[in-house]
């Protein structure tokens, strides 16, 4: 077997192992818990997938969901990204066609790990394009295992991001290919994978902006070339047309401000191409005048048009999520519903180290190497790095888009390091002269390879080339550096493994805690309560809860909900917030108007579960206050500036429906000690309930379900009727 | 199958003799220590003759209203006597539970007998009864209370002639329930006071329980479940023709309505579904019937012009008066709003003295599906774009062969021109 084949085999083996490691490290959640869909959004995706597999694509596309957002309903088919569901449904169908009948749930649970294997492969291709196979393989293993990506793609985390990162890498790979070769077919492939990305995740806007930005930077650097023109125009025209076929996206690409940069760069490219053409035809002086006047006029017109159209409302105004990208305070002040989502909060510093491990300090090195080389594709990496780091700093969830570039940059830097320190059979002093043209040297190296049995030392380029002249690469320093980095790599794997296992593998539907003897104790109150709802309430019962639990109630309990995690209608959410925040007399008409049969609250006071509704309560108050400032006021829930729930609590707090439902009968257990707030309710603080009856409380009091009383048969006010019942 | 036929036969057979549609198991509880006990017995005779299955029982030995958690009777007439309480079987709670499960209750009191349990129960219906000894007096009459036409304001009874009432207990509508209404009001010149507190001297110090036409001699209430409650303040009234009417009403022989065959469908095809499209033409129909106690059967309620349908989602989008299409069948047609969501066909018909009709059906209005919009060529505005499209297609088809076929322009020509 000759060396080339052996290398190929080795590469394939390594890639398979990398994919295996990527998949297996994501299975902790199944091993530790069970094959279950995690968290919140995945439950909706799962429900949609089931709908798709049972009703077919046509009705899925036109799905009007009458089980959520009662009584408004949701045009679900037109307001979701169908890529995930369609893909898993295709996988499911194909598996059953080849005789592997798999439950759709298992397909969904294992979907994310399977795609992470693909992502690793795409990272490899991407790395190869940027440098060489070593960088590619390193990038593959980094991306395969980096906790920043694992956090969204463990088994059961059936979310759009699971497929989106794969598509992100694919699109970028195709883009680099198209740009390098100026090839229409690669650009078309890029547009296709962009379309797939659009169909799968709202974060496609990241691509929509980063590719134009890349092109724009290239233009500023004076690197306009027909390759750029061909690649970009093909991608933009095809990709935009294709993306408009997704009902949820529709005409956004030509109307929303977020897409304007792509359109602008498209126009700019035409102008530059035109200018290029004109320059070839006229004299230098005329050309300068032409360019200056032309640019001024065009920029002025374009800017005026953008302003005017935005002002007229033809171009949709910038959405709140977008503003919060630039001004982290914006959401907190203006849009409580965005700020209330924890994954929209700015990232804390430690999480960079937690999610990226030692890659976080290799990342700048990799980018530095890119800047040293600065071919077109390296410009892309630099642009991506700058944007990605900024966004990751602004929003926790965007750590996800930073991770791929960090992994690729890490792969670049380590492979460059290995290039220098992992050369054993060549005397250092006889290192060939550094060639400036990287491509040529690479090709030369490749051409030489088959000739010699022992691989010729590769040309070391850029940054590390400077070390070559200094005689530091003695055997000892080589060994030291290599051993050190091997240690780092091992640490990375063990760190990633540990973080994946300990932090990211919890389904959050089932909570785990440890008994005093160290054994695991599972708290299954959520499923207990949802199952109770499913079995004990009428099929058309309407369940009100805070929106966090909407998807889970829809998925697990199969009951109609008022609001869910889609949060498309702020007023409706505010209505629910108001019902929870007001006293019973105010809340009852709201409940009646919305035909609410049951109310579900999550209460962690007994268990010490801090993510409960009383801790989220202030968001309900704030969101309700946004709509009804004269009826709900945040200040009235604070007792002398403190958030109290015990006897010190304010009257408004004590009278609010949420407080009453959370603490109803609570002083009877555990001496009334609230383990989350660290406060204690005495029996005299026990609230009385008039408009609802306790229907169910789960084992650890985590979920409490109340039934809303019907209007009084005798025509009394409901509190009066309740008072009579209590007295007799 | 056989059982169901048997059941249906039995139901038909029992209907023949039934005066009330919902049931005729009637319990008359009498406390023989009072002089109004015989009134109760005479009333029970008249109900027996109308086909009620009457159980007359002394208060002390009266059976409980519930047996094994089920309502044991359909109608209860309580005639108290001197005994202070009514016993644990007839507490306010038991009476209300009975009522909430659909049982009808009539309480007959007088100036002398007004037990606390009955007063507690009546208070929950929004009718406040005077304590024992509270009677109406009218110094303008001959010691008795004269009931005339003005006493029947807001009542479901119609004035048929004056009645004189002696020793009547006093009642007052407190307004805590919107369903309570008076049968017979006191005359404007009457007032009620507690004669047990009257020691003969200084009687001006005793505040009257109620004065003028605010006082009621008999009052009633109907629950949302259709059960009825009536209170009659004196035996004189109970034995009069008005008393008879009140009892017939309370035991659901009069003013009993029902709604059935509620259906909604597409107006054009008559296809019924739970899922309609926005802007569909919809038709709604409901059969409304009234109980005819003389024939013992349900008869269509004809000629009503005040039955309204609401088509609502949070707020009503339509409020339409139903028109009678055939006897007892009320219908309307309308175009569904251009708004998707879960809409309710709601009939909430509440009329004084009649059974409340309530019917709510939730349907879904879905938006147009992707293939239900007009095709592009039917929209005239799109012709501009369509012609643009075809022009480009044709231009391309012409341009490409020309470009390929024509010989390239040689460079020297261009340079020569410059």
Automatic annotation (TrEMBL), chain A:
GO biological process: post-translational protein modification; protein N-linked glycosylation via asparagine
Subcellular localization: Endoplasmic reticulum membrane
Catalyzed chemical reaction(s): a di-trans,poly-cis-dolichyl diphosphooligosaccharide + L-asparaginyl-[protein] = N(4)-(oligosaccharide-(1->4)-N-acetyl-beta-D-glucosaminyl-(1->4)-N-acetyl-beta-D-glucosaminyl)-L-asparaginyl-[protein] + a di-trans,poly-cis-dolichyl diphosphate + H(+)
Transmembrane segment boundaries: 12-31, 79-95, 107-127, 133-150, 162-195, 201-221, 233-254, 260-278, 290-316, 352-371, 378-396
InterPro entries (UniProt xref): Oligo_trans_STT3, STT3-PglB_core, STT3_N
GO molecular function (one): dolichyl-diphosphooligosaccharide-protein glycotransferase activity
Top-level class of the enzyme under EC nomenclature: transferase
One cellular component term from this protein's GO annotations in UniProt: oligosaccharyltransferase complex
Pathway annotation from the record: Protein modification; protein glycosylation
Topology in the lipid bilayer: Multi-pass membrane protein
Annotated ranges, domain Oligosaccharyl transferase STT3 N-terminal: 10-409
Enzyme nomenclature, EC number: 2.4.99.18
Gene3D superfamilies for the chain: 3.40.50.12610
Co-factor(s): Mn(2+); Mg(2+)
A Pfam family hit: STT3-PglB_core
UniProt keywords, alphabetically: Endoplasmic reticulum, Glycoprotein, Glycosyltransferase, Magnesium, Manganese, Membrane, Metal-binding, Transferase, Transmembrane, Transmembrane helix
Chief location bin: endoplasmic reticulum
Record domain STT3/PglB/AglB core: where: 542-592
UniProt function note: Catalytic subunit of the oligosaccharyl transferase (OST) complex that catalyzes the initial transfer of a defined glycan (Glc(3)Man(9)GlcNAc(2) in eukaryotes) from the lipid carrier dolichol-pyrophosphate to an asparagine residue within an Asn-X-Ser/Thr consensus motif in nascent polypeptide chains, the first step in protein N-glycosylation. N-glycosylation occurs cotranslationally and the complex associates with the Sec61 complex at the channel-forming translocon complex that mediates protein translocation across the endoplasmic reticulum (ER).
PANTHER family found in the cross-reference section: DOLICHYL-DIPHOSPHOOLIGOSACCHARIDE--PROTEIN GLYCOSYLTRANSFERASE SUBUNIT, DOLICHYL-DIPHOSPHOOLIGOSACCHARIDE--PROTEIN GLYCOSYLTRANSFERASE SUBUNIT STT3B
Protein family membership: Belongs to the STT3 family.
Protein name: Dolichyl-diphosphooligosaccharide--protein glycosyltransferase subunit STT3
Species per Swiss-Prot/TrEMBL record: Wickerhamiella sorbophila
TrEMBL record, chain B:
Main localization, broad class: endoplasmic reticulum
Signal peptide annotation: 1-19
Membrane topology, record value: Single-pass type I membrane protein
Pathway noted in the entry: Protein modification; protein glycosylation
Limits of the OST48 middle domain: 264-405
GO CC entries: oligosaccharyltransferase complex
Membrane spanning residue stretches: 383-406
GO MF term (any one): transferase activity
Residue ranges occupied by any OST48 N-terminal domain in the UniProt entry: 25-240
Keywords attached to this entry: Endoplasmic reticulum, Membrane, Signal, Transferase, Transmembrane, Transmembrane helix
Location within or outside the cell: Endoplasmic reticulum membrane; Membrane
BP GO annotations: protein N-linked glycosylation via asparagine
Keyword Translocase: no
Record's function text: Subunit of the oligosaccharyl transferase (OST) complex that catalyzes the initial transfer of a defined glycan (Glc(3)Man(9)GlcNAc(2) in eukaryotes) from the lipid carrier dolichol-pyrophosphate to an asparagine residue within an Asn-X-Ser/Thr consensus motif in nascent polypeptide chains, the first step in protein N-glycosylation. N-glycosylation occurs cotranslationally and the complex associates with the Sec61 complex at the channel-forming translocon complex that mediates protein translocation across the endoplasmic reticulum (ER).
Annotated family: Belongs to the DDOST 48 kDa subunit family.
Quaternary organization: Component of the oligosaccharyltransferase (OST) complex.
Protein name according to UniProt: Dolichyl-diphosphooligosaccharide--protein glycosyltransferase subunit WBP1
Lineage: Eukaryota, Fungi, Dikarya, Ascomycota, Saccharomycotina
């Amino acid at each position: 077997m000759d060396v080339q084949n052996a290398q190929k085999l080795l590469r394939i083996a390594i890639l398979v192992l990398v994919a295996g490691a990527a998949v297996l490290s994501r299975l902790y959640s199944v091993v530790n818990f069970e094959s279950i869909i995690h968290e919140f959004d995945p439950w909706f995706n799962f429900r949609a997938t089931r709908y798709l597999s049972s009703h077919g694509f046509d009705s899925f596309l036109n799905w009007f969901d009458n089980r959520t957002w009662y009584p408004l309903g949701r045009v679900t088919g037109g307001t979701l990204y169908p890529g995930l569901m369609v893909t898993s449904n295709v996988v499911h169908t194909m598996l059953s066609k080849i005789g592997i009948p798999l439950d759709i749930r298992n397909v969904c649970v294992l979907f994310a790990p399977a795609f992470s294997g693909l992502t690793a492969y795409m990272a490899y291709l991407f790395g190869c394009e940027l440098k060489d196979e070593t960088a590619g393989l390193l990038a593959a293993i980094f991306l395969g295992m980096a906790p920043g990506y694992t956090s969204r793609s463990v088994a059961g985390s059936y979310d759009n991001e699971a497929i989106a990162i794969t598509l992100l890498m694919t699109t970028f790979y195709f883009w680099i290919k198209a740009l390098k070769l100026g090839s229409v077919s690669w650009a078309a492939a890029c547009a296709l994978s962009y379309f797939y990305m659009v169909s799968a995740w709202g974060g496609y806007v990241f691509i929509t902006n980063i590719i134009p930005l890349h092109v724009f930077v290239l233009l500023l650097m004076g690197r306009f070339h027909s390759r750029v023109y061909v690649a970009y125009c093909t991608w933009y025209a095809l990709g935009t047309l294709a993306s408009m076929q997704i009902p949820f996206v529709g005409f956004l690409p030509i109307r929303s401000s977020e897409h304007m940069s792509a359109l602008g760069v498209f126009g700019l490219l035409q102008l530059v191409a035109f200018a290029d053409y004109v320059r070839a035809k006229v004299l230098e002086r005329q050309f300068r005048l032409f360019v200056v006047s032309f640019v001024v006029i065009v920029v002025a017109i374009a800017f005026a048009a953008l302003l005017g159209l935005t002002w007229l409302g033809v171009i949709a105004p910038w959405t709140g999520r977008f503003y919060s990208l630039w001004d982290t305070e914006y959401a907190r002040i203006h849009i409580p519903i965005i700020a209330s989502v924890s994954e929209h909060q700015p990232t804390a510093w430690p999480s960079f180290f937690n999610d990226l491990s030692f890659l976080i300090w290799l990342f700048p090195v990799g980018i530095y190497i890119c800047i040293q080389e600065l071919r077109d594709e390296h410009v892309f990496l630099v642009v991506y790095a700058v944007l990605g780091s900024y966004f990751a700093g602004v929003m926790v969830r965007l750590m996800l888009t930073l991770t791929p570039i960090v992994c690729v940059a890490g792969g670049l830097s380590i492979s460059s390091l290995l290039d220098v320190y992992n050369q054993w059979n060549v005397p250092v002093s006889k290192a060939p002269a550094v060639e400036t043209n990287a491509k040529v040297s690479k090709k030369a190296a490749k051409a030489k390879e088959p000739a010699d049995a022992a691989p010729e030392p590769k040309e070391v380029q850029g940054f590390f080339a400077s070390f070559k002249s200094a005689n530091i690469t003695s055997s000892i320093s080589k060994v030291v550096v290599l051993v050190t980095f091997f240690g780092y790599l091992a640490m990375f794997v063990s760190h990633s493994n540990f973080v994946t296992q300990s932090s990211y593998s919890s389904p959050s539907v089932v909570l785990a805690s440890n008994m005093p003897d160290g054994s695991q104790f599972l708290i299954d109150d959520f499923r207990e309560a949802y199952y109770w709802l499913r079995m004990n309430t009428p099929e058309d019962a309407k369940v009100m809860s805070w929106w966090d639990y909407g998807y889970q109630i829809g998925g697990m309990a199969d009951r109609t909900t008022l609001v869910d995690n889609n949060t498309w209608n702020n007023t409706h959410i505010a209505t629910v917030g108001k019902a929870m925040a007001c006293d019973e007399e105010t809340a009852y008409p709201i409940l009646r108007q919305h035909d609410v049969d049951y109310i579900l609250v999550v209460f962690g006071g007994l268990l010490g579960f801090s993510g409960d509704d009383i801790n989220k309560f202030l968001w309900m108050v704030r969101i309700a206050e946004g709509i009804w400032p004269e009826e709900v006021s945040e200040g009235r829930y604070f007792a002398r500036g403190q958030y109290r729930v015990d006897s010190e609590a304010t009257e408004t707090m004590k009278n609010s429906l949420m407080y009453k439902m959370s603490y109803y009968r609570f002083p009877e257990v555990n001496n009334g000690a609230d383990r989350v707030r660290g406060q204690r309710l005495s029996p005299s603080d026990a609230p009385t309930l008039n408009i609802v009856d306790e229907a169910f409380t789960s084992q650890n009091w985590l979920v409490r379900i109340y039934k809303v009383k019907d209007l009084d048969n005798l025509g009394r006010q409901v509190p009066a009727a309740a008072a009579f019942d209590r007295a007799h | 199958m056989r059982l169901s036929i048997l059941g249906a036969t039995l139901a038909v057979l029992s209907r023949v003799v039934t005066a009330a549609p919902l049931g005729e198991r009637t319990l008359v509880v009498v406390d023989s220590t009072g002089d109004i006990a015989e009134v109760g017995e005479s009333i029970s005779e008249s109900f027996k003759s109308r086909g009620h299955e009457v159980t007359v029982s002394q208060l002390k030995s009266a059976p409980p209203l519930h047996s094994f958690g089920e309502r044991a009777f359909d109608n209860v007439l309580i005639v108290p006597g001197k005994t202070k309480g009514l016993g644990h079987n007839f507490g306010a709670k038991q009476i209300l539970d009975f009522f909430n499960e659909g049982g009808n209750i009539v309480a007959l009191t007088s100036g002398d007998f007004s037990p606390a349990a009955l007063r507690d129960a009546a208070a929950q219906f929004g009718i406040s009864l005077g304590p024992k000894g509270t009677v109406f007096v009218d110094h303008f009459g001959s010691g008795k209370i004269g009931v005339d036409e003005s006493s029947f304001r807001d009542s479901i009874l119609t004035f048929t002639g004056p009645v004189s009432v002696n020793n009547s207990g006093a009642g007052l509508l407190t307004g805590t329930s919107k369903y309570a209404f008076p049968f017979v009001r006191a005359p404007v010149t009457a007032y009620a006071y507690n004669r047990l507190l009257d020691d003969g001297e200084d009687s001006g110090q005793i505040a009257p329980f109620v004065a003028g036409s605010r006082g009621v001699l008999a009052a009633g209430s109907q629950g949302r479940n259709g059960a009825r409650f009536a209170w009659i303040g004196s035996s004189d009234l109970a034995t009069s023709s008005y008393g008879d009417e009140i009892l017939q009403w309370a035991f659901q022989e009069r003013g009993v309505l029902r709604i059935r065959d509620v259906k909604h469908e597409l107006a054009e095809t008559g296809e019924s579904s739970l899922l309609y499209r926005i802007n569909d033409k919809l038709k709604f129909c409901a059969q409304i019937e009234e109980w005819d106690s003389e024939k013992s059967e349900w008869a269509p309620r004809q000629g009503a012009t005040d039955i309204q349908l609401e088509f609502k989602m949070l707020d009503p989008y339509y409020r339409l008066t139903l028109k009678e299409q055939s006897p007892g069948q009320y219908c309307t047609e309308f175009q569904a709003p251009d708004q998707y969501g879960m809409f309710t066909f709601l009939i909430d018909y509440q009329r004084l003295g009649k059974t409340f009709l309530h019917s709510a059906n939730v349907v879904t209005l879905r938006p147009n599906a992707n293939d239900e919009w007009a095709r592009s060529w039917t929209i005239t505005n799109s012709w501009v774009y369509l012609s643009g499209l075809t022009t480009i297609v044709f231009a391309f088809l012409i341009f490409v062969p020309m470009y390929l076929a024509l010989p390239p322009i040689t460079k020297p020509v261009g340079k020569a021109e410059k």
